[in-house]
Amino acid sequence: SLQKAGRNDWKAYCQSRDTLAEASAIAVLREIARQIELPIHIVHLSSARGVDIVRAAQQEGLRFTAETCPHYLQFTQDDFVNPSISAHLKTAPPVKTETDREALWSALAHGTLSFVTTDHAGCDPQKEKSSANFWEVYGGIPGVEHRVPFIISAGFKSGRLSLGRAIEVLCTKPAQFFGLSHRKGSLEIGKDADFALLNLWQSEIVAAINMHSKGKYTPFEGRTFDAVVEKTFLRGNIIADRDGGAEVKIGYGQWLSRK
């Protein structure tokens, strides 16, 4: 193996989880989908080859869906060269090439990819993101609070997604997928008044020190989002705002049932 050969760099890690590995796994699932009637969902899609297989499965009429994450839509393996974010960018699967990144954006715009998640996974970066051995570096990014401004900034405001499609991949499609669209995912009479108030005329430079996650690190450090979330509302009440206040207390949450 690469580890036994003493290959402890990021290139070896990426080689162990390349596009062929992803495509092969998705192809196996497509074959399974042909034999059973249960839906299959691919998480954290990172490659153009993976997109092609998902699209082919959908065109075949299979119940086959997929999602991707902000880091796959922003970064490539060229960014591993940057020592300030290299360890912070480690995920499974790893980010790929510019060609893969553009294929993901296109698939998101045209509906092959259903929505965008973050695989939110934080840690103590001083302890778990500092090893010189890339295999030992913790794999994960705390990305929940960056998902919305990133998609609005890099997707809608950059012209990659229409505003309607941006709202779909952030709100409507996830609610539908999880069977929660009777209450969530859109602003309609009878549904929960869940929404975020965004300022599209203000930009913000991402800084880990300002993150609300206990794991204060991000590969987006120093990058500019051309959209800012001012307030977040749950069932009509403010649960978070940029001033740090909230109108509700712990325990305000409710159990949600699928339909």
Q: Return Rg in Å.
A: 19 Å
> What share of residues are in beta strands?
5-15%
Ends apart, CA distance between termini: 47 Å
Strand order of the largest sheet: 1-2-3
Shape by Cα distribution: globular
Could you name the ranges where pLDDT drops below 50 across 5 or more consecutive residues? none
Largest beta sheet, briefly?
A: 3 strands, parallel
Write the topology of this structure.
Blueprint: H1 10-16, H2 19-35, E1 40-42, H3 48-59, E2 64-68, H4 70-74, H5 98-110, E3 115-116, H6 125-128, H7 144-156, H8 163-177, E4 195-199, E5 204-205, E6 224-225, E7 228-234, E8 237-241
Structural account:
The protein is of the alpha/beta class. About 35% of the residues lie in helices and about 10% in strands. The chain contains eight helices and eight strands. It has helices spanning about 10-15, 20-35, 50-60, 70-75, 100-110, 125-130, 145-155, 165-175; strands spanning about 40, 65-70, 115, 195-200, 205, 225, 230-235, 235-240. The strands form three sheets. A three-stranded parallel sheet has the order 1-2-3. The protein has a three-stranded antiparallel sheet with strand order 4-7-8, with no helix packed on it. It starts with 9 loop residues before the first helix and ends in an 18-residue tail after the last strand.
Briefly summarize what is shown.
This protein has 259 residues and is α/β, with parallel strands linked by helices. Helix content is 33%, strand content 12%. It is globular, with a radius of gyration of 19 Å.
